[in-house]
């Protein structure tokens, strides 16, 4: 999957590595703020609104490189608050954008046939499902 992210875009690389590095699900990726991550100290320090827990993590060097590359690229559109934005404008990415990107990467890697993702039972994306989905037979 990471190889496919490298082939796809700098945004895909930064998103995929951030999700894996910080154990984030799609909504948490879209909610990443500039203030949450310190690439000089290599630390993520963010507040999780869902349960009020503060998440602290060491930033992998590969994740830092991917985020820096994304932020210095033509794909990056600076948003006052959010780190990951749509490349066409400054709008924050939404969960649907992340799920669609992940599905595209999985299809490109021949890990998933179109339409083979098993939906969450309550219709919402559950923690880790978009990154490590279960499959239907």
Characterization of this structure:
The chain has about 140 residues and is α+β, with helices and mostly antiparallel strands. It has a domain at about 1-35 and about 60-110. The chain has five helices and three strands; from the N terminus they run αααβββαα. Strands 1-2-3 form a three-stranded antiparallel sheet, with no helix packed on it. A hairpin with a 4-residue loop joins strand 1 (about 35-40) and strand 2. Mean pLDDT is about 80; it is low at about 115-130 and about 130-135.
Task: Describe the structure using short key phrases.
137 residues; alpha+beta; 3-stranded antiparallel beta sheet; disordered C terminus
The run of helices and strands is: HHHEEEHH
Major sheet summary line: 3 strands, antiparallel
Strand order, largest beta sheet:
1-2-3
Structural class: alpha+beta
Query: Tally the helices: what do you get?
Result: 5
Question: How helical, in percent, are the residues?
Answer: 25-40%
Give the uncertain stretches in residue-range form: 114-128, 132-137
Distance between the termini: 21 Å
Radius of gyration: 15 Å
Shape: globular
Question: How many strands appear in the DSSP assignment?
Answer: 3
Query: How much β-strand is present in the residues?
Result: 5-15%
């Amino acid at each position: 999957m990471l190889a496919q992210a490298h082939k796809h875009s700098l945004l895909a690389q930064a998103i995929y590595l951030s999700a894996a590095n910080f154990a984030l699900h799609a909504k948490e990726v879209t909610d990443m703020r500039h203030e949450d991550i310190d690439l000089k100290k290599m630390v993520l320090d963010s507040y999780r609104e869902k349960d009020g827990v503060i998440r602290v993590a060491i930033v992998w060097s590969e994740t830092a490189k991917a985020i820096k590359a994304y932020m210095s690229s033509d794909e990056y559109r600076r948003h006052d608050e959010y780190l990951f934005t749509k490349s066409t404008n400054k709008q924050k990415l939404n969960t649907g954008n992340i799920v669609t990107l992940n599905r595209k990467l999985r299809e490109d890697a021949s890990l998933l046939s179109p339409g083979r993702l098993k939906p969450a039972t309550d219709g919402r994306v559950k923690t880790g499902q978009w990154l490590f989905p279960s499959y239907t037979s």
